[in-house]
Amino acid sequence: MAQVTVAYKKLIAQRCALGNGTATACTQRLGAAYVPAPASPAIGGAAAAPVISPAQAGMVAVARLQLPVSAPGIGPDPKKNEWKMAAVGYPLWLWADGATHVGPVADSVGVLSVSLDASLSKTVFEMGDGKTVTCSGAGTPYKSWVQPGAKSPSCGYAYAKPSLPRGKYKVTATTYWAVTWTVNGVSGVIDVPRQGSVQLPVGELQAVIVR
């Protein structure tokens, strides 16, 4: 039981640290799934192995599941234009650049077999200028055939102020994974956040009118 409790507390600490939540808030959010199982009675004077509930086994398996970190995808790619930067006012496409599904994954916790299946449910982009953009799923990747100046159909942004010449904006993508665990017909869902970031230079383009 001690090992399960430690793994559970570690899961809370990791998720809270990344999600900027408090330990109390995370305990309340995940606590419904945490059902301590009673210890087995001692046999012949020796302590028996602890009993692990399906919920405990599910959370231990989720805590050690390796989920991908997705960097923010930004299109059109500023590295490919002549100015090597994004422009103020120009519509950018945003997406989580990576996998959107993991599973099914099999794991074992004690004597219990756990099945895990994870899907990316939403992505929150911190744009570096104090603004955030929340998108369902991963967003839509930018393609080379997209009409110049077209807005993303699902997840986009346009900067109002430049980062240059002071520096670059740090764009962070927090992906939220809905991880479903199943043990002996019992199941639950735990939200797991992951973060990736990139540096983005944003400047102003000056139009020159020749008469």
Question: What features would you describe in this structure?
Answer:
- With 211 residues, the protein is α+β, with helices and mostly antiparallel strands.
- The chain has one domain.
- The protein is 17% helix and 36% strand.
- It contains three helices and ten strands.
- The protein has helices at 2-19, 23-30, 54-63; strands at residues 71-75, 86-87, 92-97, 101-109, 112-126, 132-136, 156-157, 169-183, 186-200, 202-203.
- The strands form three sheets. Strands 4, 5, 6, 8 and 9 form a five-stranded antiparallel beta sheet that branches. Strands 1-3-7 form a three-stranded antiparallel beta sheet, with no helix packed on it. Strands 2-10 form a two-stranded parallel sheet.
- Strand 4 and strand 5 form a beta hairpin.
- Helix 1 (2-19) packs across helix 2 and helix 1 (2-19) packs across helix 3.
- The chain is elongated, with a radius of gyration of 23 Å.
- Residues 1-6 and 16-40 have low confidence and may be disordered.
Oligomer: single chain
Radius of gyration: 23 Å
Question: Mind describing the biggest β-sheet?
Answer: 5 strands, antiparallel
**Contiguous uncertain segments of 5+ residues:** 1-6, 16-40
User: Between the first and last Cα atoms, what is the distance in angstroms?
Assistant: 81 Å
User: Which percent range describes the beta-strand content?
Assistant: 35-45%
- The mean pLDDT is 81
Integer tally of domains: 1
Helix content: 10-25%
Number of strands: 10
Q: Determine the number of helices (DSSP H or I, runs of at least 4 residues).
A: 3
Q: What does the overall shape look like?
A: elongated
Give the SSE string. HHHEEEEEEEEEE
Which structural class should the secondary elements be placed in?
A: alpha+beta
